[in-house]
Amino acid sequence: xxxxxxxxxxxxxxxxxxxxxxxxxxxxxxxxxxxxxxxxxxxxxxxxxxxxxxxxxxxxxxxxxxxxxxxxxxxxxxxxxxxxxxxxxxxxxxxxxxxxxxxxxxxxxxxxxxxxxxxxxxxxxxxxxxxxxxxxxxxxxxxxxxxxxxxxxxxxxxxxxxxxxxxxxxxxxxxxxxxxxxxxxxxxxxxxxxxxxxxxxxxxxxxxxxxxxxxxxxxxxxxxxxxxxxxxxxxxxxxxxxxxxxxxxxxxxxxxxxxxxxxxxxxxxxxxxxxxxxxxxxxxxxxxxxxxxxxxxxxxxxxxxxxxxxxxxxxxxxxxxxxxxxxxxxxxxxxxxxxxxxxxxxxxxxxxxxxxxxxxxxxxxxxxxxxxxxxxxxxxxxxxxxxxx
Amino acid sequence: xxxxxxxxxxxxxxxxxxxxxxxxxxxxxxxxxxxxxxxxxxxxxxxxxxxxxxxxxxxxxxxxxxxxxxxxxxxxxxxxxxxxxxxxxxxxxxxxxxxxxxxxxxxxxxxxxxxxxxxxxxxxxxxxxxxxxxxxxxxxxxxxxxxxxxxxxxxxxxxxxxxxxxxxxxxxxxxxxxxxxxxxxxxxxxxxxxxxxxxxxxxxxxxxxxxxxxxxxxxxxxxxxxxxxxxxxxxxxxxxxxxxxxxxxxxxxxxxxxxxxxxxxxxxxxxxxxxxxxxxxxxxxxxxxxxxxxxxxxxxxxxxxxxxxxxxxxxxxxxxxxxxxxxxxxxxxxxxxxxxxxxxxxxxxxxxxxxxxxxxxxxxxxxxxxxxxxxxxxxxxxxxxxxxx
Lengths: 389, 389
Hints:
Strand order of the largest sheet of chain A: 3-2-4-7-1-8-11-10-9
Number of domains of chain A: 2
Largest sheet of chain A: 9 strands, mixed
Distance between the termini of chain A: 19 Å
Radius of gyration of chain A: 19 Å
Helix content of chain A: 25-40%
CATH superfamily of the largest domain in chain A: Thiolase/Chalcone synthase
Structural class of chain A: alpha/beta
Oligomer: homodimer
Strand content of chain A: 15-25%
Largest interface: A-B, 64 and 64 residues
CATH class of the largest domain in chain A: Alpha Beta
CATH architecture of the largest domain in chain A: 3-Layer(aba) Sandwich
Mean pLDDT of chain A: 97
């Protein structure tokens, strides 16, 4: 299979965007990506769209041809595929788009992600988010995404001595990064005590441990590395794209303090990219909950198992730290429109590797990693991008 | 890209299967396919699952890793991707699986489709089916799948003189075929007057013009043609797999008496397979409504535009006719569990090309075609399979 590059990116702001519908959002993101790649929409020969639950959120399935249509490209009749993998939907769309180009089946592909979440009630929100868990053995008995992550947090604290304050440090850092990101939903700093004193969602996780359900969309354009320089001076190479699965239910896992799907995907991704974790200059990881980021940096090899909390609290993962994590503000501060998140992660890495990340720029970054999880880890995707080529 | 073969197939009965959940259904189909391919489940290195709206039907998204898990294969951690494209979801899953093997990214892939539809009320059913149309400009204003197909039927009758009796002939033929298919939902013959006298759904379409919402699942196993003979004496080659899109809303089309997405996908599929429509020995087409089959045989080149009704009524598309259409009974008699239908079509073609279609066997069939549509044609997939190799 041939090398593939990201040649353009575009995203909406993430937030409570009452004035924009799902189709408005993904069209805005797609148009921006097409403009960023310096091409005409009619050059695109394939589309992949990740959305978790547009059917339940806004009553619309069959999203992919809708997106092509709304972009004014229905006359191209290109194949348009919607993929879904809980809140990893965007990352899976990215990987399918990557495979479509790597195989030679397609030349210029757009990969988008979108979710329009904020038009439903709080109880519907919990219900819909829980559809990425095991409906029959988790959600039916009252387990929600928050309570399942709460259990992971408690287990991690019990086994490794991770503290409430270390969890809070993740949120504080990501809000600090979000201040520097124009597209972030939350652009205000918070203090550790804000997290500790916030309303309890699922013990030990408070409101500030949880990423906000948001509206938003993001899109990227892929083509072969060979052709990429026609469109951009700074093509970003997809050095690895790996997906793995695990049991749908958390209670069926070997261990709830680690995600085997992430460990395995990371291992294969490092092998595909021909690098080790030490070579990665920055990473966007799945911080739907603060404990998620702590487990991610361990499972990706950026910290020893059980030491993720220490790494977070010591500043190692801060913008100026050893391995900057979630420079975009992460899902915590950027916002978490489920299907859009995986693509937004890619966009942050691309912008960093191109040196256009503004006030949150990581210096001399060559390799960036994006890790995304569906549900509590039944799907994991790890992508590694390379710049400076 | 390399040649790809179907080496195993499996499906459940289609019907109102109250004793089986979504996970029961897809597991049964997957296990049968694995057994038919003479392999162990742990040999599989990728899974694609098509389901249109499991989120709305049974409250479960994130279906793909669930399926792998239920099959007892969670310890393989293989990538598992759910795709959705309305009632073409199964066909799109098949095409993604095809691309995954053709590209060399995967070796042995399972492509499944499933829908568990009959646990919802009639009004929910209409609502959910309509999510594959344009939510904002069709469904919101009361248009349903049935009413949109009713409009297509009236336009076709007006422009080409297609008659109510010709529409009925499609249903009569498909029921006659369904009698011969052990997995079909309806195994009883009907007469033209049964169709004409049945309750009106959306003028001119009566109950017997519409495929029944059903529960069911289907799965197939794909591997490279080169490796296929290790598993089967009769590998079935995927000679072409093409997908195309069109506007999501029917009223935005150039013409509502033809589906441009189908015409284009068929044209490309014939080119990929290196054959013409005349070389096709049988086809499974999208008869969610009888007018759908009439338009399909025209758009696929089996009848001149406007003459599809005549072809249906004259027996040309019967089991013993010039070009047998929907030998399985089609969606009309086999049943139409949305996500499963596209895979079930492939299974019928495989069984026919392998000479194991029992009482409905088409003699000396070499090329079989499967055509699937999402919504009113915003997605179209055309697959051509070749046997006797």
